[in-house]
């Protein structure tokens, strides 16, 4: 089951217009406000920094300034009612990809359900990699420099107008980004909800 890279889940409902319209695409808090112990903001520099805190904004990786904003209560209620009620409440929200990121595995989750609002440009692709001499599925918080040591195993442009789930324990990156990549993210710690497993896997 864990050897897949991503799967499109076409039967899940699209997010409502009001949820997308309330996203402030310009605002980011100043980086000096991030701290592993902050009640409002959390910056993850080491795996031990992630203690499943509640937060407003999170900077998931030390290697870039990309940030994720926590869903508000109304958006969380919509996710519970229409997507699943089995997800990480304090680790789901809107992700703003403003900067290039290294190929990596995620720090705070093993699987993530995504919905792209903006793709990052016409050449952007979500890519999955295998590092030479390593297994495809890795531990959390791996970051690898680009180079011949990485072999592309899968890629996708978009997907658009569909939720899709990503195996975040496989090294992945978004390549060819020329603008903001913005997506909704519903995080799952170590298990995919049974409803999804039974239907899509």
* Overall structural domain count: 1
The overall pLDDT average reads 95
Write down how many β-strands occur, each being a DSSP E stretch of 2 or more residues: 11
- With strands numbered from the N-terminus, the spatial order across the biggest sheet is 1-9-6-11-5-4-3-2
Can you give the helix content as a percent range? 10-25%
Sheet having the most strands: 8 strands, mixed
Shape type: globular
Strand content: 25-35%
* Poorly predicted tracts of residues: none
The helix-strand sequence is: EHEEEHEEEEEEEH
CA-based gyration radius: 16 Å
Q: Which structural category do the helix and sheet elements fall into?
A: mainly beta
Keywords:
201 residues; 8-stranded mixed β-sheet; 30% strand; globular
What does this structure look like?
This protein is mostly beta strands and 201 residues long. It has one domain. The chain contains three helices and eleven strands; from the N terminus they run βαβββαβββββββα. It has helices at 17-21, 73-82, 194-200, and strands at 6-9, 41-43, 57-59, 67-70, 93-97, 111-119, 125-131, 150-156, 163-167, 171-175, 181-188. β3 (57-59) and β4 (67-70) form a beta hairpin.
Task: Describe, in short, the structure shown.
With 201 residues, this protein is mainly beta. The chain has one domain (6-22, 29-200).
Fold topology:
Elements lengths: L5 E4 L7 H5 L19 E3 L13 E3 L7 E4 L2 H10 L10 E5 L13 E9 L5 E7 L18 E7 L6 E5 L3 E5 L5 E8 L5 H7 L1
Parallel strand pairs: 2-3
Antiparallel strand pairs: 1-9, 3-4, 4-5, 5-11, 6-9, 6-11, 7-8, 7-10
């Amino acid at each position: 089951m864990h050897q897949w890279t991503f799967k499109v889940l076409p039967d899940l409902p699209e997010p409502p217009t009001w949820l997308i319209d309330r996203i402030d695409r310009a605002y980011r808090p100043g980086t000096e406000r991030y701290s592993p112990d902050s009640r409002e903001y959390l910056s993850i520099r080491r795996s031990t920094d992630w203690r499943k805190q509640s937060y407003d904004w999170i900077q998931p990786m030390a290697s870039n300034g990309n940030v994720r904003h926590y869903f508000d209560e109304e958006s969380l209620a919509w996710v519970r009612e229409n997507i699943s009620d089995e997800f990480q409440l304090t680790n789901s929200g809107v992700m703003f990809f403003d900067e290039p990121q290294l190929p990596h595995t995620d720090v705070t989750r093993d699987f993530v359900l995504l919905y792209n609002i903006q793709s990052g440009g016409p050449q952007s692709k979500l890519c999955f990699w295998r590092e030479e001499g390593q297994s495809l599925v890795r531990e959390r918080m791996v970051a690898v420099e680009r180079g011949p040591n990485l072999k592309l195993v899968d890629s996708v442009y978009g997907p658009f107008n569909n939720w899709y789930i990503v195996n975040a324990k496989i090294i992945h990156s978004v390549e060819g980004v020329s603008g903001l990549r913005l997506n909704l993210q519903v995080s799952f710690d170590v298990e995919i909800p049974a409803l999804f497993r039974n239907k899509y896997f």
